[in-house]
Every structure is written in structure tokens, then in C-alpha cells.
Amino acid sequence: MKPGILSPLAVACLMILALGLAACGSEDPDVIIPVIEILAPTDGAFLSEDTLIEVEASDNEILVRVIFLIDDVEIGEDDLEPYEIQWEIADWADGEHHTVFAVAEDEAGNRGYSVPIVVTVSALN
User: Fold this and answer.
1) In the chain, how many domains are there?
2) How far apart are CA 121 and CA 47, in angstroms?
3) Distance from the Cα of residue 23 to its chain's centroid
4) 81 belongs to a structural domain
5) Which CATH number covers residue 62?
């Protein structure tokens, strides 16, 4: 064999190695942010009793949870559709405005944030 020329076996081995390396790095990481929207209650609502907060969330992969927040305080989470939580309003200031929002998180840790809504807890009985 002449110096500098590879045997057919060496060429085949190099091709297999190159294909293997290309396959290892070919999967792109998930960078798509989940989409989330609050369905209920509606922005501007007056609440006089415990209220179900309902959201719709989706992602290109698998959602692992939805986190619910009132005035930046986490009140709970849900990991199954339909994504919802019962908000017990008795512990929240009567006559005050409160900001409600939710966060959807996927398996890759990407987080999508809902547009916040503002509701008012009205006179409790």
C-alpha cells in the first residue's frame, strides 16, 4: 500500500465514526416556550366567593405543571388537564384588587407566563 492512502477498511471505519458523531449531536434542545392563557375568572371581575381559576396551556412537547399565583404568591399547581385550582378568597384583602397569573412549565424547564388579570375581592358574607 502506498503511504498516505487509506485502505477501504480504514475509510469505512472513518465513515461509521463520522456518522455516529453526527447522530449524537443532531437532536436540538427544546427551546419553545409554553403558551398559557387564563380563561376564568375574567379581567376586572368582582369575586364574592371562592373561585375556580381555569387556564388553557399548550407546548410543543410535554407540559409538567401549571403554577397559579395571586399577587406574586404561589397558591398551588396542577399537573393534569384541565389546568385549574380553587381559590379560597377568605384570606385575601376584602375590597382590594388582586393580580392573578399562571406559569406553564415543560419538561425542558421552559416557562411561559400568562397575561395577568386583575380582580377585586368584594364584600364577603
Assistant:
1) 1
2) 5
3) 29
4) yes
5) 2.60.40.10
The model's pTM is: 0.77
Please give the mean pLDDT across all residues of the chain. 87
CA separation for the pair 119, 125 (Å, rounded): 18
Domain that holds residue 95: 35-121
Percent of the chain exceeding pLDDT 70 equals 78
* Residue range 12-46, pLDDT digits in tens: 655 666 555 554 555 789 999 999 999 999 999 99
Per-residue pLDDT at 28: 83
> Would you say the C-alpha torsion 61, 65, 68, 74 has a positive or negative sign?
negative
Helix (H, G, I), strand (E, B) or coil at 17: helix
Is residue 13 assigned to a domain? no
Q: Is 94 in contact with 77 (CB distance < 8 Å)?
A: no
Q: Is the peptide bond before 82 cis (omega within 30 degrees of 0)?
A: yes
DSSP label at residue 30? -
